[in-house]
């Protein structure tokens, strides 16, 4: 009996001591975050549109939070490798994701190799919509989108090839949808990111490409290495006014698409830490010089948001847009 009482006393004392120790420590969500450098994961190789945007934000976020933001590139798998890097890290806010509807939504909904679902991510804040363009290689003698589409219709015997950042990306689905509209086959050639896809087009490996706009496209066009024929946007920032809108097309004026993106964390990250990131992202979005840089790179820039509720609403909007796109091209999701 005495032995039993002693064990109970020790158990009680241990719990009490543990509780006392825990109570003396700062709450995980209320500590001095960040206390070390942050990892900003970009799911594509360096040099692409996502990488350029992330480096613009990374510098500003670093100044806001007082810690270094290290941009880490993980190309391949249409963003799966980068997404898994974030989901494999602790949900502590120190690793966050420069993500878009490609990696967070389309990949897990369409790719059986994706072992996660969109809801495994939490949107901290939206940052921009990337404007998507169609470009053709040097040697295709067309000057407008409609001329190119007429050219494509005459190439049924030998399907035209097109480059994107990967299988089941929004650009891939757009290519399939455009082929269906025209009634002609296209052959998809996936690359590991925007930079390799662009080099493939400029090198004549493919006939055309569907990619998010970058300012480097204009210089490559001036060099005669490619031609930018159209954007798929309803409207463009001032820096892109020289690019024709899809609404100017006679054949597919309603073929409008853009790609929303933002900064995501792993679900379960403490709310106070997400709020620190959101505040830093908002401060970047409020800077005129950053907005100008992003617009010059073809981005329609979001306004800062102030709450997780607003972020959740944008997340749901992204999910709705992706679901509709999948239906439009006649695909089934992994859950179907």
TrEMBL record:
Instruction: List the signal peptide residues.
Output: 1-29
Q: One short Pfam family name for this protein? A: TctC
State the organism named in the record: Cupriavidus necator (strain ATCC 17699 / DSM 428 / KCTC 22496 / NCIMB 10442 / H16 / Stanier 337)
Q: Would you say which domain of life the source belongs to? A: Bacteria
Its family remark reads:
Belongs to the UPF0065 (bug) family.
Ordered alphabetically, the record's keywords are: Receptor, Signal
Keyword Cell division recorded: no
The entry's protein name is Probable extra-cytoplasmic solute receptor
């Amino acid at each position: 009996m005495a032995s039993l009482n002693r064990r109970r006393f020790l158990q009680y004392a241990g719990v009490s001591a543990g509780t006392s120790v825990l109570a003396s420590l700062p709450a995980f969500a209320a500590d001095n975050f960040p206390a070390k450098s942050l990892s900003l994961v970009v799911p594509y190789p360096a040099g692409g549109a996502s990488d350029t945007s992330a480096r613009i934000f990374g510098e500003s976020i670093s100044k806001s939070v007082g810690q270094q933001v290290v941009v880490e590139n993980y190309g391949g798998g249409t963003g799966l490798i980068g997404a898994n890097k974030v989901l494999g890290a602790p949900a502590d806010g120190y690793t966050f994701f420069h993500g878009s509807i490609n990696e967070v939504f389309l990949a897990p909904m369409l790719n059986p190799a994706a072992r996660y679902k969109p809801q495994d991510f939490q949107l901290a804040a939206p940052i921009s919509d990337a404007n998507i363009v169609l470009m053709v290689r040097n040697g295709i003698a067309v000057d407008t989108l409609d001329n190119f589409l007429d050219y494509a219709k005459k190439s049924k015997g030998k399907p035209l090839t097109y480059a994107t950042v990967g299988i089941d990306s929004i650009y891939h689905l757009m290519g399939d949808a455009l082929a269906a509209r025209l009634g002609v086959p296209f052959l998809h050639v996936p690359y590991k990111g925007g930079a390799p896809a662009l080099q493939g087009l400029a090198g004549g490996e493919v006939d055309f490409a569907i990619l998010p706009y970058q300012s480097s496209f204009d210089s490559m066009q001036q060099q005669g290495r490619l031609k930018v024929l159209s954007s798929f946007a309803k409207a463009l920032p001032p820096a892109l006014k020289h690019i024709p809108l899809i609404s100017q097309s006679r054949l597919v004026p309603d073929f409008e698409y853009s790609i929303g993106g933002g900064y995501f964390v792993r679900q379960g990250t403490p709310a106070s830490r997400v709020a620190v990131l959101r505040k830093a992202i908002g401060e970047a979005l409020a800077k005129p010089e950053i907005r100008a840089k992003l617009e010059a790179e073809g981005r329609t820039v979001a306004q800062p948001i102030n709450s997780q509720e607003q972020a959740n609403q944008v997340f749901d909007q992204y999910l709705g847009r992706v679901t509709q796109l999948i239906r439009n091209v006649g695909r089934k999701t992994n859950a179907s």
